[in-house]
Amino acid sequence: MFINTHTHTQVHDAKLELVNQDMDSTDKANHYSYGLHPWYIDKETYHDQLNKLEVIAHEKRCLAIGECGLDKLSKVDFDLQEEVFVEQIKIANKINKPLIIHCVKAFNELINCLNLNDNKVPVIIHGFNNNENIARVMVNEGFYFSFGKALLGYESNAAKAIKNVGRKNFFLETDDADISIKYIYKKASELLGIDEEIIKQQIQSNFETVFKTKL
Ligand SMILES: [Zn+2]
Q1: Contact in structure between 18 and 32 (CB atoms under 8 Å)
Q2: What global pTM score does this model have?
Q3: Cα of 87 to ligand 1 centre, how many Å?
Q4: Would you state the pLDDT for residue 175?
Q5: Which domains does the chain have, with CATH numbers?
Q6: In angstroms, what is the span from residue 20 Cα to ligand 1's centroid?
Q7: Ligand 1 center–CA 176 separation, angstroms
Q8: Measured between alpha carbons, how far is 89 from 66 in angstroms, rounded to an integer?
Q9: Distance 170 CA to ligand 1 centre (A)
């Protein structure tokens, strides 16, 4: 069974695709996550969007809050990013669903926001492609990782990190890349030197644990 833990389009090449639902889209995927991305926070509308998120987050097919998080390269004021992220941490904890995280150059701030708000839900860092030091800190925090197209790059950080994060801590994704999740599984299997079937079983088990679903 292929599971795509983070994508922006439903392409039906996996048993389960967790689609990052557009804030404005009325047409919902079979399984989705919903959240305010740090690139697109608008001072005028974010209160309304957070209210909308709080409603949608309760829906059964909404499996996670996100992608949300912090991005030092975003044009959005960083204090505003933190404020909106904290609100999403609160919503996720209120309804007890995992957070799917977008984080660029702000891992210390990310950990602080989560700890200061007494976060108890699983945290999945999506599109992880950072160095070993950051990976180690994130593993110690008990975070999960979702690896995608960066695995395909020769000796990328992601390709190194996947070997070190522990089998119970990872997922695979396509994000916005125009590739099949099957190709990412194949690459993960090569990098880890583990049969693809074992990877499928492991990710299914990880998914069932983190998202509290039976597949
Ligand atoms: Zn994404």
Answers
A1: yes
A2: 0.96
A3: 20
A4: 96
A5: 3-210 (3.20.20.140)
A6: 7
A7: 6
A8: 10
A9: 16
Reported as a pLDDT band with limits 50, 70 and 90, residue 44 is very high
How far apart are alpha carbons 108 and 120 in whole angstroms? 18
Q: Omega before 190 cis (within 30°)?
A: no
Write out pLDDT tens, residues 17-40. 999 998 777 788 999 999 999 999
Q: Which residues are CB-neighbours of 190 under 8 A, at least 6 positions away?
A: none
DSSP at 175: B
- Kindly tell me the burial class for residue 10, based on how many C-beta atoms sit within 10 Å of its own C-beta (0-12, 13-18, 19 or more): middle
Q: Which two tokens stand for residue 212?
A: 């509290």
Residue 125 has pLDDT above 90, yes or no: yes
What spacing in Å lies between the alpha carbon of 197 and ligand 1's midpoint? Answer: 26
Please state the length of the chain. 215
Please return the burial class of 142, using the count of CB atoms within 10 Å of its CB with bins 0-12, 13-18 and 19+. exposed
Question: Is the model's pLDDT at 98 over the cut of 90?
Answer: yes
CA pair distance 52, 199, nearest whole angstrom:
36
Place of tokens 């099957």: 182
